[in-house]
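Task: encode each sequence below as structure tokens.

Item 1
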Amino acid sequence: MSHVVPLIADPYDRWLNAIVVSALLVMTEWCYFVAALAPLPSPSREYYLDALTTLKTGCCRERLNELCKRHIESSDLQVKQLHENGNVRYCETCQCIRPDKSHHCTECGICILRCDHHCVLMGCCIHQDNLKAFILYLVWGLLYSTLAFITDFNFTYFNAPEDRGPFWYTISISYLMCTQLAIWPMVIYSYLIPMNLAFRDRWHQRCPFDNLGWRKNLRRG
């Protein structure tokens, strides 16, 4: 946009685009850093088993499952989500019982509460504490790339006084690609959040575990 705004003839239109687009860019970057720098929420100490007790079970999953069930009852843990075979969701890497909607991220190396997915763009997991910032990042990014594309496309294709070469057309296409990349996640999450589903879950049924309603699920962060 810095290559287009100074060339807009109308001063009102020029300043409007400069201020609005810059504000949208600032909000996009702010939400990005808030989501990327959010601490990873891990299960509390009550969900972890004693290492020595775990070693005594050996490789017997039946004994380990019984141990997990006794630990849940004795510690009064609220765990409802189980494996399909009825066993407790236990993480052998972290040696802890997984709370509802939590998953172990191999990239981050720990179990994360309400882990949605590991975002390569941000280099971290999207979880209960940064999901709202991630959604806002998509919203502001969509608005920024859309307005930037409209302004750049309108100037390059209709108002440019001369042909400035293929580089300018490439910039317009890049804004359009960013718009498309932001639209599809917004469509997906508009379906997942009301269903209390994470990106890694199966999408064919509503998840009843740890469901506070779509507004509170989004406001956890």
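Item 2
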Amino acid sequence: MLKLGNKPRLLSNPCSTSTHATPERRLTMEYRINHVHIRAADPHATAAWYEQHFNARIVSERTVMPNTITIGMEMGGQCRLNVSSKPPGSSDERAVAELNRLGLEHFGFDVEDIEAEMERLTAAGIRTVLPITDTPTGSRLSYIEGPDDVLIELVQPAAAA
């Protein structure tokens, strides 16, 4: 029986269609991340940045409230990226692009060749937050700063044994 405060732990990739819960509770449906949503000072420029650097494709642009647009983008997988303008009268406070902060810290992209990707992104003037790092599991990762202080992780999964 599920007690208040007990939450299922996801044991697999949250973007996959296969979801497992701990024995305390079985979920009756599968969950996957639908999208990542970014607020941008200039949503068109931010969307263009993701098109240029990560082959994103704009699939929609709509007004979701007066004077606020949302640009929907496909990123090549099941998770989408939405980029929205700041609603009138909302805070100008920005996120801080740093590791280990509370809240949504970053999102990540799988890459086939992290060295080539980091070379390409660095040549484009994109700031490296964490250089390429080898992990104990064999994967390699790095962090960059995207538009609007968004922290992005690049992950080269470990080679299959």
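Check on item 2: Strands lie at 35-40, 57-65, 68-74, 80-85, 107-110, 128-134, 140-145, 151-156. The helical segments are 43-54, 114-123.
End of task.
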